Fold this sequence. Notes:
The complex is a heterodimer of chains A (167) and B (436).
Chain A: H1 3-28, H2 32-36, E1 39-48, E2 62-66, H3 68-79, E3 91-104, E4 108-121, E5 124-139, E6 142-152
Parallel strand pairs in A: 1-6
Antiparallel strand pairs in A: 1-2, 3-4, 4-5, 5-6
Chain B: H1 7-17, E1 22-25, E2 30-34, H2 36-39, H3 41-52, E3 57-61, E4 70-76, E5 79-85, E6 92-96, E7 111-113, E8 116-118, E9 125-127, E10 132-134, E11 157-161, E12 164-168, H4 176-180, H5 183-193, E13 198-200, E14 205-209, H6 213-220, H7 226-229, H8 231-239, E15 249-256, E16 259-265, H9 281-308, E17 310-315, E18 319-323, E19 327-336, E20 339-349, H10 354-368, H11 375-391, E21 396-398, H12 413-426, H13 432-435
Antiparallel strand pairs in B: 1-2, 2-21, 3-12, 4-5, 4-7, 5-6, 8-9, 9-10, 11-12, 13-20, 14-20, 15-16, 16-17, 17-18, 18-19, 19-20
Helix pairs in contact in B: 5-9
Amino acid sequence: MTAVAWQQQVLLRQQVEEFLYTEAALLDAWQLGDWLLLFDEDAKYEVPCNDAPDGDPARDLMLIDDNYTRLASRVDRLNSRRAHREYPHSRTNHQVSNVRVQDASAEELSVTTSFTVWRFRAGRTCCYVGQYHYRLRRGDGGFRIAAKRAELDMTDLRSVGDVAIIL
Amino acid sequence: MSTRVEPWVTQESEVAAQMPIVVDDPAARRFRVHRSAMTSPQVHRAEIERIFAKSWLYVGHESEIPEPGDFVRRPVGGRPIFMVRGVKTGHVNVFHNTCTHRGALVCRQESGNSKVFQCFYHAWTFDSEGQLKGVPDRDAYAGGVNFDELGLKRVARVESYRGFVFASFDPDIVDLPSYLAGAKDYIDIVIDGCGGSVEIVRGTNQYSFAANWKLLVENSIDGYHAESTHDTYLKYLVSIGTDLRGGVSGRAIDLGNGHAVIEYGAPWGRPVAKWEPLFGEHARTEIDRLRADLVARHGEDRAHTMAEVNRNMLIYPNLIINDIMAVTVRTFYPPAPDVVDVTAWELAPVNELPSLRERRLDSFLTFLGPGGFATPDDLEALESCQQGFVSGGVEWNDISRGMGRSPMANDEEQMRAFWRHWQHQIGAAADRAGAQ
Lengths: 167, 436
């Protein structure tokens, strides 16, 4: 790899990291309406079951399989005072690391990262650990999310109870 | 520190000894459960010994192990168990997951296919029928050990009904069909409604929460809580075009032996076989065909029950089969009075049209799944109850709703059926004196 290509790759990764940190900050600030704006209208948000991390939503049971409409409903639900599990809200801390740009074309990027999402509520602590798989689109104002998939490393949800928050 | 016991303590205990935890007063139309049932370590211990060791417990579904040598391992009644389809016999074998030599687990993967199960500790090897086939240095044993007797230990009783495999640690328990009593016919309705052949969908929900297990029993068959607890889910249904007019109406039935069901009409569609606009026009023909098929096989009345009526069923003590917008098979175990480990699967007809399967998967995960729009709020409600019990001041839960009338689906008769059997089975161990 030439020095220029290397520089470009590092720059791209930094741009992606900047975008993912912004996304994490919106989630942690519970600015879910603004967070939703990061997604394209044909986007998907998926969380497979712990015992089937390669789960295919057309065939396998998923924990979450949101198209844009359902994702918007999820945001509405969490913004209401009737999502009892999340009212009052958890405090969360979305940590993104090990960012790798796997594949980049002129239009789209494939990105994998590690994540740790801490959740604190009513004196209790729990933590989600796993890998994010993103498809990001390049747009005029930066990246847009075409797909976000959170594959959990925990073997089950016993320590976290549910996935009521957004990972 | 004084060890003097106040006189009133003794008197209180004497009174309490004559007072069961479940107080069923049909004349007064009052049914109450003392909250120590949910908080007392003594009651919890008694439940493990008298209920979980003495009932038929759900192990898994035969569709999980279709081929010879297929196995799954999981805790049943809190004990590590594995279920394997025997290579020689094709039978479903359910074994205690422990080496007969010195105890280590012999099945150490969640699922898979294997002809043999080798304990890695000293390499004792068992086949899929449980026979001990390999012992290194067998010559070192001077004839004092009969290796034929050291096969894997089967769980005392194993039987299946329509593909649902149950086991009991009690060798003297009644046979499974007698135990299931009125629940048998409802299992038939679920399976026959799915065309007679069902499978567990890949992907398991395994979650836990901090409350008593009997609160999940109640919640799983509770037709009264949806409007208040699941407001956001109902709003979601409306947003995707479900017509909520007509609401939920139906009845509650005591099925005997602690089993109970609520059956009711509800606004949502059912992949078998109640079409709603959300399914799309293309699915209408298929759903009509499925329904016509049910009518041809079972007659209009039973086909109506299968197609349009929803069922939330408890099979005592810890199996839920809810046949609603999707079918869930849910079992749970309490490692402590205020902890529940839940394992839930989705059941579906084999060879289902992909578009209907997708709708079914969607419906399951949005309502029943731990990442959905309803289950997290149930967990919050149950944990909230448990926290409320700890507050004290109030001793009793009231479960009287619908007494004195023909019980409806949003009444509490189905919970009373559970609690009556629970009190009967646990006996004096659940007197309030025992709970203190």
